[in-house]
Specification:
The complex is a heterodimer of chains A (about 260) and B (about 475). In chain A, helix 6 links the parallel strand 2 and strand 3. Chain A folds into 2 domains: about 45 residues, no CATH class; about 210 residues, Rossmann fold (3-Layer(aba) Sandwich). Chain A is α/β, with parallel strands linked by helices and about 260 residues long. Chain A has a 6-stranded mixed sheet with strand order 1-3-2-4-5-6, sandwiched between helices. Chain A is built from 9 helices and 6 strands. Chain B has a domain of about 290 residues: TIM Barrel (Alpha-Beta Barrel). In chain B, helix 5 packs across helix 17 and helix 7 packs across helix 9. The chains are: A alpha/beta (about 260), B alpha/beta (about 475).
């Protein structure tokens, strides 16, 4: 409970309720200020989140990871060449560079894409490095046999909507964008999945379904893959995605939030 | 239309209209560049300010930045403008107005008297000519007091919103953060939860949970669940114990449409909350949140700079006599406010404009992890705002919101400000803190003993269940 001999901070006597939440409660005080160890803990968490935003995605390493699942990848970039531009100009992160657009148009794939998976760094390359391979493995396992996901696209300096342009060029029926979400202090590596039926340039968030917080401490790979495939099947059946497609795979959702609260 | 040009030496600068003068006169920020309305050079920015300084205040009643016909916020601003209050300043230019605001002639009583004669555009315009210290000095003179179960906004007071969010709305988790905050003396502005769910039964449970805790300890404060206003109206109809009604608002009709609201809907919500008659000290029942960039992100800014759009949101707020209005200054991200410098400037502008217009403005002093900012910037902004007479700030355990994934201010931060600047909690709440022995007789929040009443009698969600 207390304290090294020279530690003059006062701990808070409600330590037992710390287990009920990940919020930073019962931190203790020196006077009314934060003890040194808490300032440093916070500083480290912030540093990790900052690194997650600024760390460039190692595209070669990711391609190799994906290759090990017998999935080939094609690599493209957005019009936001560097990270500062990416952060200041979300519009540029939504558009393919001219070279990448030409490259995609020139590439011929053996079969047309029903489901096209696009992997984008977004705001956390850490999320992509850690979670894309195991999530893809789950998707491979759970998907219907007649769905082909032998190739996918990796997009750098990407925002969600870049998958619309990619999907339109490649003639996909539906895109699944796996993208690094805005890092939180306690979740620097959260991955999001955005599904868009009949992708084309000019769509907006109302046209998408989103699955958020994919990571072992949040929504598990298996649960995320299940939810994603359920939504894709519904979208293909109803020929729509977004607000018109309600996520009724709720049973899975309840299981997940129960897992999270049980884990606390 | 008036001619907006200014000559420096041999170089003559020409501006198309008042909207463009305003945008180009704005201190640099990424959102105005993103919108394509910012000054292109440093010199053009200052020249635009020189041009703006010569514009008569009365021009803002003739040249509307967003047309009356297309925008209900413009109509609200014009239709409710108090000509009599305006008559005291109607002879001034924007530049004269800055001088007058800083002068000792503009004392607190005078500023209160003319408040309804000032439009958001006039407030925004003069703020663009002011340095940070000017924004602090004038805001400090503006007193805006409101009440529900306690009194908010008295001079030399600083209130705190206790924000006990949890990513899955876990009742134990929320109760744990609430208890933590109360034992650190936070929660006089409101105990306000951002829920993860939209489900009405789950929201109902949250209302009852917070209300139970308020009743259990007889806390003179109010609760709020920050869900869409239409949900809150439905929950009031179903008998939920709703104290304050929350809604995010913006400065144009089109941006408000993207939030799914109109002014009439807000009026309806206000009436619904009034019908419950749950206030004991007063009847200010609304809680609003705003933030620069919301109009642009809804593609609803009409070429108006983001700070002016934000000031227009305060006209909407003012119309509904809120208990609290909160500018969530750094939440929107670096494409609107890039770094600590821009966030600090925006926070001071918002607070100044809100107070000048008579709105009880607090600030969520905050940032996201993709902005160039850190807790040192938050320390700077919260200290400046508290010096300027900020109405309230956020209190989140350790400044880390695990539900909304951003960093803001903590219970410890509020105690720092109260200690350094000699600020007090709302008087009714302070009396409660003393009675509960959370605060000592000298007004200092003190460490809690394990035998403390509230630890011996925890909220029922925190009691071990078998």
């Amino acid at each position: 409970m207390s304290n090294k001999p020279l530690d003059i901070s006062t701990p808070d006597p409600w330590q037992q309720i710390k287990s009920y939440t990940r919020a930073r409660i019962a931190l203790g005080r020196v006077g009314s200020s934060l003890p040194t160890n808490e300032v440093l803990d916070f500083g480290l968490a912030h540093a990790m989140a900052r690194d997650a935003v600024h760390l460039a995605l190692d595209v070669e390493a990711l391609a190799a990871q994906i290759e090990s699942l017998n999935i080939t990848s094609i690599q493209v970039c957005s019009k936001a060449q560097y990270r500062p531009t990416y952060l200041l100009r979300p519009d540029l992160g939504r558009q393919l560079s001219l070279e990448s657009a030409a490259h995609l148009r020139a590439t011929r794939f053996s079969t047309p894409f029903k489901l096209l998976i696009v992997v984008g760094d977004g705001l956390s390359s850490l999320a992509i490095e850690r979670h894309v391979r195991p999530l893809l493995a789950e998707i491979q396992q759970q998907k219907p046999d007649n769905w082909n996901i032998d190739s996918l696209v990796i997009a750098s300096q990407a925002r969600v909507a870049i998958a619309d342009e990619i999907g339109e060029i490649l003639g996909a029926t539906i895109t699944a964008m796996l993208i690094g979400e805005r890092p939180g202090l306690s979740s620097p590596d959260s991955l999001g999945i955005y599904l868009t039926y009949q992708p084309k340039v000019g769509l907006n968030d109302a046209n998408r379904n989103c699955i958020s917080n994919v990571r072992p401490e949040g929504l598990s790979y298996a649960a995320a893959a299940k939810k994603m495939l359920w939504l894709i099947q519904q979208a293909l059946y109803l020929k729509v995605s977004g607000v018109a497609l309600k996520d009724e795979s709720d049973v899975a959702e309840i299981e997940v939030s129960k897992q999270i609260s049980d884990a606390l | 239309m008036a001619n907006y040009q200014h000559t420096v030496g041999t170089h003559s600068y020409q501006f198309a209209d008042l909207k463009q003068v305003m945008a180009k006169a704005s201190p640099a920020r990424s959102g105005d560049y993103l919108a394509g309305v910012a000054a292109e050079t440093y010199a053009e920015r200052v020249v635009a300010r020189m041009c703006l300084a010569e514009v008569p205040l009365s021009r803002f009643l003739d040249e509307l930045l967003i047309p009356y016909e297309v925008d209900e916020v413009t109509r609200l601003i014009i239709d409710t403008h108090n000509q009599q209050a305006f008559s005291e300043i109607s002879h001034l230019t924007v530049g004269d107005f800055r001088n007058w605001l800083l002068s000792d002639a503009a004392d607190s009583a005078t500023l209160q008297r003319i408040s309804s004669g000032i439009t958001p555009e006039m407030a925004a315009a003069v703020s663009k000519l002011m340095r940070n210290q000017d924004l602090i000095l004038v805001a400090k003179k503006c007193h805006v007091t409101t009440s529900f179960r306690n009194t908010i906004g008295l001079p030399n007071h600083l209130s705190v919103r206790l924000q006990p969010n949890h990513p899955t709305d876990d009742m134990r988790g929320i109760a744990a953060s609430m208890l933590d905050g109360l034992l650190y003396g936070a929660g006089d502005a409101v105990i306000g939860i951002n829920p993860a769910t939209d489900s009405l039964p789950a929201l109902m449970d949250l209302y009852y949970m917070v209300d139970d805790v308020i009743n259990q300890y007889a806390i003179p404060t109010q609760s709020c669940i920050l869900t869409h206003v239409t949900n809150q109206i439905q929950l009031i109809e179903r008998g939920a114990p709703v104290d304050l009604v929350f809604q995010s608002i913006a400065g144009t009709e089109k941006a408000n449409q993207s939030f799914g609201i109109t002014i009439a809907l807000l009026k309806e919500a206000q009436s619904a909350a009034h019908s419950l008659n749950r206030g004991t000290v007063g009847n200010n029942v609304m809680y609003f949140e705003t933030g620069q960039g919301s109009a642009l992100s809804a593609n609803a800014n009409f070429g108006v700079d983001q700070q002016t759009c934000e000031a227009r949101a305060y006209a909407v707020a003012r119309h509904l006599s809120p208990l609290l209005t909160n500018t969530v200054v750094g939440f929107i991200g670096p494409e609107y406010l890039y770094d600590g410098k821009q966030i600090i400037r925006a926070g001071l502008e918002d607070h100044f404009c809100g107070k000048l217009l008579g709105v009880p403005l607090g600030c969520d002093v905050c940032y996201t992890n993709h902005a160039e900012a850190d807790q040192d910037d938050m320390d700077t902004l919260m200290t400046l705002l508290a010096t300027a007479g900020l109405t309230f700030m956020m209190g989140i355990p350790g400044a880390d919101d695990i539900m909304l994934n951003y960093q803001t201010t903590s219970f410890h931060d509020a105690l720092y400000l109260r200690k350094v600047l000699g600020l007090k909690a709302a008087p009714e709440f302070e009396a409660w803190l003393k009675k509960m022995q959370i605060m000592n007789a000298n007004g200092q929040v003190q460490p809690i003993s394990p035998a403390h009443h509230m630890l011996q009698n925890m909220p029922k969600q925190l009691l071990k269940v078998g």
